[in-house]
Structure formats: C-alpha cells, structure tokens
Inverse folding.
C-alpha cells in the first residue's frame, strides 16, 4: 500500500499586507503520507497517488525561491525526492522542513517560498479540477483582484492523497 493515514497538521495564516493567505481554509500538511520506501521511481508513485485522487495538471520541479501565491486555484505539493525548507504564509507564516512522502495542500491565496533545497529535490505539483492557474507575487496592483477571487475558489471534490473521504474535505467544509 502506498498510502498511510497521518494526522493532518493545519495552519491558518494571517494576511501580512502583501500575501493575503486564505482566511477561511487552513493550509494542510500530511507528513509521510506516501510511503516511498523501496520504490525506484518515487516521482511516478507520487504522481499516481495524486492523479488517482482526481487532481491533475501535474508538474515536476522545485519550489520558486521568491514568495508567490495562486489566487484562483488550490495547489498540492508532494515531495518525491530531497528536502526543502519552505516558508508558507508569507512574512508572518511558518518555515517548514519538508521531505520525501510529505504532501502539503495550499488553499488559494497561501504564500509559499523555497528558502533552501537539497540538490536532488523533486516536487510533484497538482491542482484540483476546478480553478484556473495564476501566479501572484504580492504586488499592490494584483491585491484587490486576489482578495475577491480567493473566496470564490471552490473546495475540491477530493483529497489529493486520500480521495473522496480524505481529511481535507472535512477540514475545508464550508
């Protein structure tokens, strides 16, 4: 079995004036959510788990070194290889070390920025079926639009790790 059921860790980040974060939906961390032990291809395993639970538009990369957020879509980041220290939530957020098997789920508006990454870091990113990708960097010009759109992003119909009955759906119930 590729999935364990860790207890989600959640954070609600305040608006820091540049990064709005999400006032209604918590940022979610699943530690060691995907068991990668012994797999020769952890990238494909993480992709298969996330895609199998209805999240798509998958990509493989790292995490940008500048603070940014998405105002029109939620995002999941699964760590296939390596480690990183990432600040989530903007200037007043939390710095978390993330590593293989961890999955973080960012509600629309949640700032994220890679502060350090091991050379072998591979992140699998994905998005729910509803929403549209955008990249916001915290400028005043995009702020008003972002504040209006963040609240309108629909809750996904599945958890990227645990599917239709996953903890995310209870945590994000509106």
């Amino acid at each position: 079995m590729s999935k364990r059921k860790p207890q989600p860790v959640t954070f609600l980040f305040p608006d820091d004036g540049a990064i709005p974060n999400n006032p209604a939906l918590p940022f979610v961390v699943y530690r060691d959510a995907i068991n990668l032990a012994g797999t020769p291809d952890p990238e494909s395993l993480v992709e298969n788990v996330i895609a199998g639970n209805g999240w798509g538009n998958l990509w493989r990369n790292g995490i940008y070194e500048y603070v940014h957020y998405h105002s029109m879509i939620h995002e999941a980041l699964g760590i296939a290889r390596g480690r990183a220290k990432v600040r989530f939530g903007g200037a007043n957020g939390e710095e978390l070390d993330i590593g293989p098997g961890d999955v973080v789920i960012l509600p629309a508006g949640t700032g994220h920025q890679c502060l350090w990454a091991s050379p072998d870091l591979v992140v699998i990113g994905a998005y729910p079926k509803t929403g549209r990708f955008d990249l916001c960097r915290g400028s005043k010009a995009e702020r008003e639009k972002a504040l209006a759109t963040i609240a309108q992003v629909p809750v996904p119909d599945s958890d990227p790790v645990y599917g239709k009955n996953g903890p995310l759906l209870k945590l994000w119930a509106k």
Remarks:
- The chain has one domain: 9-155.
- The beta strands are 9-11, 27-30, 56-61, 75-81, 84-88, 94-98, 103-106, 112-117, 122-127.
- The helical segments are 42-52, 140-150, 167-171.
